[in-house]
UniProtKB/TrEMBL annotation:
InterPro entries membership: Lysozyme-like_dom_sf, MltB-like, MltB_2, SLT_2
Signal peptide stretch: 1-19
Keywords: Signal
Residues in Transglycosylase SLT domain copies: 55-348
Designated name of the protein: Lytic murein transglycosylase
Molecular functions per Gene Ontology: peptidoglycan lytic transglycosylase activity
Amino acid sequence: MRLSVITLAMGVIMLTSCASDINHPAPLPAPTAAPLVPKAGQTTLAAQGRNPDEFPAYVQQLKDKARQQGISQATIDTAFANAHFIDRVISSDRNQLENKITLDDYLKRVLPESKIEQGKVQYQQNATALQQVSSRYGVPAQYIVALWGMESNFGKLQGKEDVFSALATLAFEGRREAFFTQELLAALTIVDQGKATSDMMKGSWAGAMGQSQFMPSSYLRYGADGNNDGKIDIWSNTDDVFASVANYLSTEGWKSAEGWGQEVKLPSGFDASQLGLKNPQMHSVSEWQQQGIVSADGKPLPTSVTRAWIITPDDQQGRAFLVYDNFRTLMHWNRSYYFAISIGMMADGIADNPAKPIE
């Protein structure tokens, strides 16, 4: 859901998109080739009994699956006309940078001050369209701009991979075969329904598309026509991009009266068993305040009945955050504490308004 970008590795962060929040269908049968001695760059596949030499046969299985799902032969022919195995897709999937660096390093790389300044400029330049979308969906414009900026650098970095080849490669790799098979079928459905041509289906190594970096199933579920022209163009039409992002957040439960959260300081001896979004010991802001939790600047939290959770995304650095339901909604987009925090911080910077709990 995925991704200023300063190195090739940064592309890994920025183009992962929202791939983790889609249901998983039943997997296709795996190729039956026996394990082979791996060639250079094939270690991970060969360890599972899969070799890129078997990819064409696997693509044929995918074509058969598509036919069974009612995809037309014409769509199958055009979508798979140039289908090929992409080794760098496998490398990107297994080496996502945010799994290897601290929160501070992550934020320095994906959220420099220049990125926030760009966001402010885009916010002003697109004020009319953003306010219309914000009013329609109940999502503050700064979050729309933050996701747009973080996912594709405001539309400049959408990815150039053939989506069908990327998704077929990831399904073939096998770690998340069911998920990527489903996404491939969704991509074929987009073309089959006339929403986009096969040539338009370009995106990230993970198959995320357009300025919002939607996975194909997210496009089908959340894509919105922002300018009422009867199309949903997340590749070149910013009205549709803004509406689609806002529709995603709104559908997933965005609360217009709340922010996302804020950094806090934990008292000495804080019970770590209370940490985490899945912790059943959810408390209100006031209850956390009573436990001695204060804002990052040392000021007391206000009295508030807003429910909140405490997270510590990076054990190495010990930074703590008090987060609200909207943070959980951002996690639907990309299930990464780092990512959701970066979106919240960027939105705050764009609005030039520090996050505050609801009083």
